[in-house]
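Run log // design_07
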């Protein structure tokens, strides 16, 4: 046992001596290498720093297309002063000013002389005209107010309305520089991004012959059927003309004006002979809201259905 222990001790000492000799040799070699480098003025190259990745710039959001003086906003009115107050009030509130769209209001005179209700509605139109001028200043062309006089042809409300729409559209397109007209009725309130919506679809309407018109209205835009949080940015091509806030081009008006119907103009526009397989651009979430009111051609028969419509209330 003593001999074995002595042998193990000698082996360990020998291993330590070998390791020490190896470390000494390495140190000596490094020292010599350093002396040689200094004598030859050699510098070790400094490793280049690893370049930091350049962050990609965040693209700026595309601003909405701006509607200018080439677009007119036409409001077709009669004598519902309370509805006009809400409708024109929302137009003045949300109008982007700038060069356009310019405002044109066409008021039907009705049969006989102007009634007290007609005069009250006219006062609302004048007030909105003044408020808009005060808000937007000289950059926006002054609002134009025209009157559709009684033509003596008579007929029910649908016949009178069709004649008034033809007169009003012709008046709105009368300015040579007008290439588009947005049509509102006196009982429609507009959303905060109503003008941005039409600005977004205007280039498509101008360029695509497969599009007949653009509408701010979705007939299926009721609560429970649409989600404003998910659907606000969605625009679809539809085969159905919804109206209730819509835009058409001068090109389409030149096609429709010569054959404008005597009554039921909106149903007529949905017929195959007029639509000709063209589409109507419309949002999933409405950009107009039908104000509940008494009177009008339909006598409010759809009010219970229309009051559940969801209107977009956020920014564009």
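design_07 sequence
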């Amino acid at each position: 046992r003593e001999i074995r222990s002595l042998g193990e001790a000698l082996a360990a000492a020998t291993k330590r001596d070998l390791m020490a000799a190896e470390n000494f040799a390495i140190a000596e070699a490094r020292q010599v290498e350093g002396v040689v480098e200094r004598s030859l003025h050699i510098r070790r190259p400094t490793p280049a720093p690893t370049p930091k990745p350049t962050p990609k710039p965040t693209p700026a959001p595309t601003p909405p297309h701006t509607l200018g003086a080439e677009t007119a906003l036409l409001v077709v009115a009669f004598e519902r002063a309370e509805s006009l107050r809400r409708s024109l009030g929302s137009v003045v509130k949300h109008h982007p000013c700038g060069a356009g769209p310019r405002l044109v209001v066409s008021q039907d005179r009705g049969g006989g002389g102007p009634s007290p209700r007609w005069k009250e509605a006219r006062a609302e139109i004048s007030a909105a005209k003044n408020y808009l001028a005060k808000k937007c200043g000289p950059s926006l062309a002054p609002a134009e107010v025209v009157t559709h006089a009684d033509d003596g042809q008579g007929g029910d409300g649908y016949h009178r309305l069709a004649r008034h729409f033809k007169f009003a559209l012709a008046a709105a397109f009368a300015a040579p520089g007008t290439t588009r007209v947005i049509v509102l009725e006196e009982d429609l309130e507009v959303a905060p991004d109503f003008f941005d919506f039409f600005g977004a679809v205007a280039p498509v309407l101008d360029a695509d012959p497969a599009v007949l018109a653009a509408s701010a209205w979705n007939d299926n835009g009721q609560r429970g059927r649409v989600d404003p949080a998910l659907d606000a940015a969605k625009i679809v091509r539809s085969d159905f003309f919804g109206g209730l806030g819509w835009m058409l081009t001068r090109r389409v008006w030149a096609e429709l004006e010569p054959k404008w119907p005597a009554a039921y103009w909106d149903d007529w526009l949905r017929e195959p002979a007029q639509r000709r397989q063209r589409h109507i651009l419309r949002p999933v979430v409405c950009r107009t809201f039908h104000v509940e009111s008494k009177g009008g051609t339909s006598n409010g028969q759809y009010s219970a259905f229309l009051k559940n419509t969801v209107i977009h209330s956020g920014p564009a």
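The longest strand covers residues 71-77.
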